[in-house]
Structure formats: structure tokens, C-alpha cells
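User: C-alpha cells for Gfo/Idh/MocA-like oxidoreductase, N-terminal, please.
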Amino acid sequence: MASAQIRFRILGCADIVRKLARAISLAPNATITALGSRSLEKAKKFAADNNFPAETKVYGSYDAVLDDAGVDAVYIPLPTSLHLKWAIAAAEKKKHVLLEKPVALNVSEFYRIEEACESAGVQLMDGTMWMHHPRTAKMREFLSDSERFGQLKSVHIIFTFAFDPDFLAKNIRSKPDLDALGALGDVGWYCVRAILFAADYELPKIVTALRDPVFNEAGVILSCGASLRWEDGKVATFQCSFLSHLTMDITAIGTKGTLHVRDFVIPFQEHVAPFSVSSNAGFNDLVTGWVPSPIEHTVTTNLPQESLMVKEFSSLVAGIQCGSKPDKKWPTLSRKTQLILDAVKASIEKGFEPVEVLP
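Assistant: Done. Predicted C-alpha cells:
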């Protein structure tokens, strides 16, 4: 199954398509067969500018891409406001769906996407690339180790980067009719997924938005944060922003150990990803140092994490083509992430009141 070449077609010419097109070309079990845009000329220019294979079909509409029988899967990097329409349309055409994050404007929309994919028997996965890096599996080993990490007590996540004024004025992520969730839906998505990852995907009981989020003139969130609380007492916080210097930190603290990551969304280097751990640490006799010292781990990979995502998705599609059922893990993670985003947004709208997360 792993050797089957899954035929991808791409809806739209967003900048991230350049990255995913390269990822598909590097994955051993996937190939790009077409690109579609609302403008044929735009699609042709994008394909030429980004060295798409000469045999790549180019379409001047999204419908034309979905109507092509030579498509196994579609990658949808469109603005979030268009996800509901085109993800459902793809599922109804029996195309497997790799959907950019945030997956929807709210969880009600995502339920409809999820139901359409389930009814059609097609795979659904979101584009959270770092989840597929081998470092993530190594971090899971540490977090699951009762002797080295113990019981999770708190998680603290930061993902920020400073956009220039032109981006803040013109990019789709600052437009209420295109990506109304702004920084919460973009960088906040990664923060929430990292919290869920550390908590072994257990949903929190209560979410409370932090005060003083920053909005643009159109009412789109440019910076915000939240605290999360579980019934067993563990807590988490996150801060996401389009207004602060590039930072991608995870700190997960257990009863016996601590995990630190400084580049969790995009590694400092494509093929090398570090993280550090500290276990059962204390001070030396004169209280001048730690014993034992934290340990730095480095995880290498031949394929970049986005290609590993494509490889995993394509393997699942190939399995379905051979009679397997779609993997429910990935849509479940998407749904849980969206639920928490919804709770943060609701808390902001309610004057920073605590909001209960209902599965």
C-alpha cells in the first residue's frame, strides 16, 4: 500500500501551496496531478512560477478539479470561510480531504465537514504539520513515562510572530470575511493542539480567555491568550500573536520531569529537531547547580515534517482504496482543537467569563 501513488489536486494558489507542493513531490507515495484556481491565468502563472511538473493539469475553477475522475485527494488551503463549502463538495465527489487549519470557523461547521467525509468514506486530516515529525513521537515517549515525567501538572505554550503593517492590512488572516478567527485560528490553533498533545488529548473542563486581546479595526483578533483547567487540577495557558517576535515554545511540567521545546511548529533546521528534558532534578550540595542536569535530545529526519504528513495521509488513503476504513484519529483531533478555539472566542465575547467545554 505504501508504494501506491496517491494523486493530489490542489484548490487555490495560497502561498502555503508552494510548501505543500514541495512536500508532495518529496513524499514517496504521492504526486501532484492538477492545480485549480478561480482564475485560469492565475493558476497557470502559479504553476509556472513554482516549477510544477509540465504534465500538471491546470483548471480555472474548483469544481473542475473535483469533477476530474483522475483525483484521489484534494488539498484545500482556501480561506477558512470557504472550507465548509469546498470540503463538503470534495467529500461528495469521493475525494479524500487534506484541509488547512483552522478547519472551520466554528465546531458546528466542522461537524458538517466531518459528517460529509464519514458518509462518503473518505479520509479527513488537517494540516498541522509538526504532529508528523518524529520528534513528536519521541516527546510523547517522555510525557508517557511515569518514572521520568510523572503526572502532567501544567502546560504553557507560546506561538507568536510579528507581521509587518502591509500584512496586517491586506492578508486574508486579517479579513473578517475570509479568516475571521485571525491569530486565534492561525497561531492559536497550534498552541491549542500542543496543549492537547501534552494532555494526551483530554479536553479541559473550563476555558477562560485572558484579558486585553488586541483586535484590528475590522474586529479580527491579532493577539490573545487563554487559560485552561481540567477536573483533576492540571492547568494550561497559551499566548498567540501576530504582533510579537517569532517564538514557538512548549513547556510541559510533570510531577517528576519537565519538557522544553523552542521550535515546536517549525524546527530551527528542516532535518534536525531538538528538545530538552529534565527528570527528578534537584540542587547540588551548595545549591549552585542542578543535579542531574537537563538533557538535550536531537531527532533527525530525512523527509521534512510536511512531507511526512503527506506520506501518512497518502498511506491512509491507499489503505481505504484497499478496503480499510478511514482513520478517525485525525478528525477527532481537529474537532477537539476547534472546540477549544470556540470556547476561547466565546469567553472573549462574554467578557472573559469561564466557558465550559462540551464535547
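User: Anything notable?

Assistant: The chain has two domains: 6-130+321-337, 132-304+339-356.
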